[in-house]
Amino acid sequence: MPLQQCIQKFITEPSIKLMAERATWLGNDETHYVRKWDDKDLKDLKNLIELTVYFISMSLKALRYQEEMVK
How far apart are CA 32 and CA 23, in angstroms? Predict the structure, then answer.
C-alpha cells in the first residue's frame, strides 16, 4: 500500500495526518526533476517528520494518562 493511502486509512488524528501528508509531499518532491515546492528543502522535510513524531508521541502520552486516571 502506498504511503499516502496508509496515512489516509490508518491515521485519524488531524494534526498527525496533516504533518504526515506534508512530509510525504516534500519527500515525493525530492524524487522528481521538476519541484512542486520550490521554497521548501530537506530541512523542511526533516521538520515535518519531527512534527509528525512529536504529535504521535504527544497523543500516546495523553492517551496513557486518560486511561490511567479515569474519573
Answer: 15
The closest of 52, 9, 10, 56 to 27, measured between CA atoms, is: 52
What are φ and ψ of residue 67, in 5° steps?
-75, -35
At residue 44 the predicted structure's pLDDT band, cuts being 50, 70 and 90, is very high
pTM of the model: 0.78
The helix or strand, by DSSP H or E, that contains position 38, with its residue range, turns out to be none
Give the Cα separation of 23 and 56 in Å (integer).
14
Q: 29 Cβ partners below 8 Å, 6+ apart?
A: 35, 36, 37, 40
Question: Do the Cβ atoms of 48 and 19 come closer than 8 Å?
Answer: yes
